[in-house]
Amino acid sequence: MNAETAILVAIVLPLAGALAIALAGRIGPNLRETMTLVTSAALIWVVWGMLPTLMADGRPAVTVGEVMPGLSIAFRVEPLGMLFAALASGLWLINSVYSIGYMRGNGEKHQTRFYVCFALALAATMGVAFAGNLFTLFLFYEALTLSTYPLVSHKGDAATVRSARVYLGILLSTSIGLFLPAIIWVYTAAGTGDFVLGGILEGKVAEPEVGLLLGLFVFGIAKAAVMPVHRWLPAAMVAPTPVSALLHAVAVVKAGVFTITKVIVYIFGVEFLFASPSSAWLMYPAAFTIIVASLVALRQTNIKRLLAYSTIAQLSYVVMAAAILKPHAEVGAAIHMVAHAFGKITLFFAAGAIYVASKKTEIYQLRGIGRRMPWTMAAFSIGALSMIGVPPTGGFVSKWYILAGAFEAENLVALFTIIASTVLNAAYFLPILYMAWFEREEADAKPHGEAPFAAVLALCVTALLTLGFFLFNGPVIELESQVVRGLT
Predict the structure, then answer these.
(1) What is the membrane topology listed in the Swiss-Prot or TrEMBL record (predicted)?
(2) Helix spans in 75-208 (H)
(3) Domain segments of the chain: what residues?
């Protein structure tokens, strides 16, 4: 198929998969899970099949229809979107394998609904990744919020539903109250919302409105979890671990930082923002979020809540890198999306495996667990070292590029923030590793082994990806360098 057709197939395929999963669920769990794996594998084949066209500087596009004059539903493949789509589609397959082990091992109810909503969320993710304008992006951004709500509220008890409402309320109120007005402003000022390399707002929006419009975007795109619009993310930790992995590594938070980066590059334009004094504020909430979220993570006793605040901090690395407005930092932002995805999904997979095997959820309960669950804790250790930025993990590569951009810009705030947060990351991850590997297990601990094979297999794969990305990151750098070359 040609690239234009492939764009539409990438969006429709998970929708068709959701229907097939729902029908297969009436027959039996094996067929249902087979349909999940087949659909996710087929999505990889479709999405990754567009890479050669993109690497050859092709930019396939397709318009589905026009809602009203100047407002169309359109899709276009460009490097940032391709990176996001390739990452999400690849991790969906691994997450699906993990989900089989987790959902069965934990005896979760409503598993068919779980797999259906997961597929719907991936369809929305593909729409976000390939959106050709702000209107299309907004439609699929909202679809992603709505399709993940049933996943967050999966358990169905009163406490879970309350937390899920916080998740839904913050994401919908910010997108409708801030993100949508920003989009309307852009269409009114520029006459279009199309994503154009170099931006569309130069000469259309004057000072100090540039800074105000940027604020509407940054805080309206709450999926990026820049403080103070971050509370939805810890609230969502009531969801099953595969959903947490979806939220933190595969789709939701990546949709947030991807959208902010795309708005900076394709709507404002890096050069236009760099020349606008009123946009300089973005560095400070990003730096504040990184430091404060790291300090909050340092105080957590629950494993998943620690990982949630770690995610909030790590996401703002991407926002800060984009705000540095230098080529190395822009590449670093893209690399960090990948490195964080591999490392954080590994950490959540490991936390879920620990829960399935031992029902342990608190950090103090991890004493000596490395002896009982060596594969799981080895993977957890790799993910933790990547969050710190220790070689040979992918997190080292992304921090290197962001630091290079900060040096290039002579940005002392960014330099201090990266160094301080690295120390804080080490302060809350290294004690866990020491406790797991070198302390003795509690005397009354119940015997247990590893989680089901599917879960352990998935977390080992993502741990290997975290290590492998340290060496094999060239295609990502080359892909995102196409954007940088277009800006210079």
Answers:
(1) Multi-pass membrane protein
(2) 79-105, 111-130, 134-152, 158-174, 180-190
(3) 3-487
